[in-house]
Specification:
17 helices, 6 strands, two-stranded antiparallel ribbon, alpha+beta
């Protein structure tokens, strides 16, 4: 039993180092900087352990996060998750056990209006224009962003879910139903042309780390779009050319460097693209490929992809129950929050009622 327990603790420590730390490292640094500034006597290894276990210091830190940017709903939750990560390392109880901190986090969420209904829906015509202009672009990050936008529409996903997709969370499905989950497998390597690819591949499954707001259960989402299959196959071939047999993130970050006075963007294969960068590139695509102004594009965000996808499903006649299942929402009311009935459709309904 002792050997089994030691083995299990080793796996947990490895998982926390690889996944949890990279997810929480920025907020952990901010918490440590806050403690060093406001509690100088605790700015050492032993003092930091005391500060991490202190509910009072944690509550003050969350309040500072809220005051710094009161319009960002997810900042308090991200900061609280990072402090809980530190508490798990020192074997202290999570912050959720403190009713005051639990009430503060809930109040922070409720004090800020949800922006889902305010986010305009990402129209399918925008997706087609971006894929046409950026999908075959010689610029690698434009091809990748076009694929991510189209993939988000096909899977009813937000930007956060798309950018966190990993290479090992991809399974190709042949026409006979067999699945291929080898990280080094690329359909375009096995098949000579796009025609051969589409004749042999039915689609693929994509594993999202979390499909529900309060659950960490991953979900396999099927994708059958011929355009997505072709773009993804070319994207994986490009990744393998940069680093053969590379695992990790499916969509790498866009790192910049200076080359003879001009800025050059290189892929950071070891880390995924951030949500903020993806949002900026979405707006850039709307301006460059769809003809929107900077002010118009600024209204769109990663939620706009999901709002547009759920509206597209409604137009195709998909039932509310099936839309909720495809989107991974826990309740019907949450799914309805993403549904935006166009103004013209609202007038048509009223016209049938009153005339």
């Amino acid at each position: 039993m002792a050997a089994d327990l030691q083995f299990a603790e080793g796996l947990i420590a490895c998982a926390m180092t690889k996944h949890s730390w990279s997810r929480n490292s920025s907020w952990v640094s901010k918490f440590q900087a806050y403690v060093a500034l406001h509690c100088p006597s605790l700015a050492n290894a032993r003092g930091m352990k005391v500060a991490t276990a202190s509910d009072r210091i944690a509550l003050a830190f969350l309040a500072s996060v809220m005051r710094e940017n009161p319009k960002a709903r997810t900042r308090v939750d991200s900061a609280k998750r990072a402090v809980n990560f530190l508490r798990a390392i020192i074997e202290a109880l999570p912050l959720d056990g403190n009713p005051n901190i639990r009430l503060f986090a809930r109040s922070a969420r409720n004090a800020i209006a949800h922006t889902v209904r305010q986010s305009p829906a990402f129209q399918p015509s925008y997706v087609q224009a971006i894929v046409m202009h950026w999908g075959s672009s010689p610029v690698w990050w434009k091809r990748m962003v076009a694929l991510m936008i189209l993939l988000a529409i096909c899977t009813v996903a937000r930007g956060a879910e798309i950018v966190s997709t990993r290479r090992d969370g991809l399974a190709w499905v042949r026409n006979d139903g067999t699945q291929i989950r080898q990280e080094g497998f690329c359909p375009l390597t096995e098949f000579d042309s796009r025609h051969d690819l589409m004749a042999a591949v039915k689609g693929f499954l994509l594993l999202f780390p979390s499909r529900k707001n309060k659950s960490s259960t991953p979900s396999w989402i099927p994708v059958i779009s011929a355009t997505v299959i072709s773009l993804l196959a070319r994207h994986i071939r490009w990744i393998d050319a940069r680093r053969p047999g590379s695992g990790g993130c499916l969509f790498p970050a866009r790192a910049s460097r200076r080359n003879q006075g001009s800025r050059v963007y290189d892929p950071a294969l070891d880390r995924p693209m951030g949500v903020d960068a993806f949002r900026m590139l979405i707006r850039m695509a709307l301006v460059e490929a769809c003809g929107l102004t900077q002010a118009q594009a600024a209204e769109y965000g990663t939620h706009s992809l999901r709002v547009g996808a759920i509206e597209l499903l409604r137009r195709k006649g998909v039932s509310a129950e099936l839309r909720q299942q495809l989107g991974g929402w826990m309740s019907a009311s949450c799914a309805l929050g993403y549904l935006q009935l166009p103004v013209s459709a609202q007038f048509n309904v009223l016209r049938r009622v009153f005339y």
